[in-house]
Amino acid sequence: MLIVDGHLDLSWNALQWNRDLRQSAYTIRANEAGLPGKGRAANTVALPEMRRGRVGLCFATLLARSTSRKVAHLDFESQAQAYGIAQGQLAYYRGLELAGHARIIENAASLRAHIAEWDAWEAAGADQATAPPLGFVIAMEGADPIRKPDQLAAWREAGLRLLGPTHYGPGRYAGGTGTELGLTELGAPLLREMTRLGILLDMTHLSDQAFWEAAKRYEGPLLASHNNCRALAPHQRQFSDEQLQFIIGRGGVVGAAFDVWMLQPGFTRGESNQTVVIDTVIDHIDHICQLAGNSKHAAIGSDLDGGFGREQSPCDLDTIADFQRLPGKLAERGYTADDIADILHGNWLRLLFAAWDD
Length: 358
Description:
358 residues, 9-stranded parallel β-sheet, globular
């Protein structure tokens, strides 16, 4: 079954982690053997495994912070550096497109054609040698690379279609995870420009204060690309039932993340992941469906290889190809074939078509 993943940091992994994602996940692991650092030789995502897992479309991120809290290859000294890094990450996606490995999806017509090609490939037997290009919808995780709100139009022209105003810490536009800060002076003008340009608002990583301030100011379609449920994993990174119900009420979609830290209460990075399995992710999907009363607002936003690897993923997941186990696991919970199609691709597609169709 076709799967749409609402959050993959592909360019960050390729450039900042120096991984050739054209190679298999196993080749990358072998090449990283002995390298120090979290997640090394434990990656779960590469283009061949995405094709094997039928992840035919993903929201592919641009990620570069400038919060004055320097983190190597992630948080930079100046906004100009963050701009340059994000531009390079976008150029990487264009490079994959030029080489025929991917295509960047920017409008409803290209999305329809892309999905039709993947459906035809599935119907023809899904031979890996004839797999269509992977589809990327360009998303920015944290708006620090955007110098001022009036620069957003240029980013949209370059392909940006989804935007989360902040990441961890005090972003230039809004308070993020780990803060109690609201929107900055730049935040409200950015949201107005997003509404004008039709760029979807990703609520992920907004502090509670910034979440509700953004909710009042943004008029367009919204989502939470990779967010789990505070009721099941009680810390500020996740959204409360009230926040989730607000997104549901606005017709939005919430993508369940596979990061163990976002799945298991009290998990400390570096601890064993052996008590967390793929079914733990299903618990969060089910919680969202129960809040909504239907399957129309839950999806996948895996965040796999988002600064971690197998050591911080469900212990029964080897690579993203294992996503093809999700239909069976959802069926075991009583979800119908239509429900499963909603969760694994239909809801993200509905959101995009609603935003892009004239």
